[in-house]
Specification:
heterodimer; A: about 140 residues; alpha/beta; Nucleotidyltransferase, domain 5; 5-stranded mixed beta sheet; 7 strands; about 35% helix; rod-shaped; B: about 140 residues; 6-stranded mixed beta sheet
């Protein structure tokens, strides 16, 4: 009598549990290491020589000075709120080819500076310079 | 009976109800692999200022300076004293192959007062570098 060697085949699929273990570990790894917030950059070109800002001042530039983090900026000895869109719009329309130079006193935070730069850009300013805010105060 | 046997074995297999789970997990895995970017984390947690600016860097910065709220300064992941930054930058610049494209990224927390950042910018300027960029994050949902 021939031996029936072919065993009743069990469904010899690979057990899924180890697979899931590995896949879960991979999933955790990718979830923890990946970042979805790409950083944006704002160029703040630094002038090497101190002469260039003086030459630039011949064109009419508007200097905005931040004194404290109270949502106000000083333009020509006048305090303007950041939310005063009408003022910014007319200011920018009147000085279309000038550069808006933002200066800041000690204690003003980076976020305040960026807020003001954003305001100017929203209202149509094309040339906004924030590099002066980072310049060392001139020692007399 | 053959049919009955087959049927019984199929029910006995525990792994079958795992298949939908694996499908979902695989989908998530593929999503995170494709959509995420693997990056080295910053040495300290900084929350850069929010801005509407949407400019992305074309290439990676040559030097990254991270300034935390507690005024600690990390240059390329190493804690540095402010006085040594200039020398470090000059060294990196001399080692760099692409001198035209050499740029420095400053990642500073939005809550940092500007007078704390001025010495950092001054060091970059003293090193003779002009290409500096500040890191910002895209503002969402304001106004």
């Amino acid at each position: 009598m021939p031996l029936n060697l072919s065993q009743p085949k069990r469904k010899n699929a690979i057990s899924l549990t180890p697979l899931i273990d590995v896949v879960f570990i991979l999933l955790l790894f990718f979830m923890l290491t990946s970042s979805f917030v790409p950083w944006r950059i704002v160029d703040t070109p630094l002038s090497v020589s101190s002469d260039s800002p003086k030459i630039a001042e011949e064109i009419e530039n508007i200097t905005l000075t931040l004194k404290v983090n109270d949502g106000q900026v000083w333009v020509k000895d006048e305090a303007i709120r950041f939310t005063d869109h009408a003022y910014f719009k007319t200011l920018i329309a009147n000085h279309n080819d000038g550069t808006f130079i933002i200066k800041a006193e000690d204690g003003v935070t980076l976020q305040t500076l960026m807020h003001l730069a954003d305001r100017l850009k929203i209202n149509g300013a094309t040339r906004v310079s924030i590099a002066n805010a980072f310049a060392m105060p001139e020692t007399p | 009976m053959k049919i009955g046997e087959k049927f019984a074995r199929r029910i006995a297999s525990d792994d079958d109800n795992m298949v939908p789970l694996i499908n979902v997990v695989f989908l998530m895995l593929v999503f995170f692999m494709v959509a995420g970017q693997i990056k080295k984390a910053d040495p300290i947690a900084v929350s850069p200022p929010h801005s509407i600016n949407d400019t992305r860097a074309a290439n990676d910065p040559n030097v990254v300076i991270v300034v935390g709220v507690d005024d600690r300064l990390y240059v390329d992941d190493q804690l540095q004293m402010i006085e040594n930054v200039q020398a470090y930058l000059e060294e990196q610049f001399s080692l760099s192959l692409d001198k035209e494209g050499f740029w420095v990224q400053i990642k500073a927390d939005g809550a940092i007062p500007l007078d704390k950042l001025r010495p950092v910018f001054n060091q970059v300027r003293l090193a003779g570098l002009t290409k500096v960029s500040l890191a910002t994050q895209l503002e969402r949902g304001e106004e």
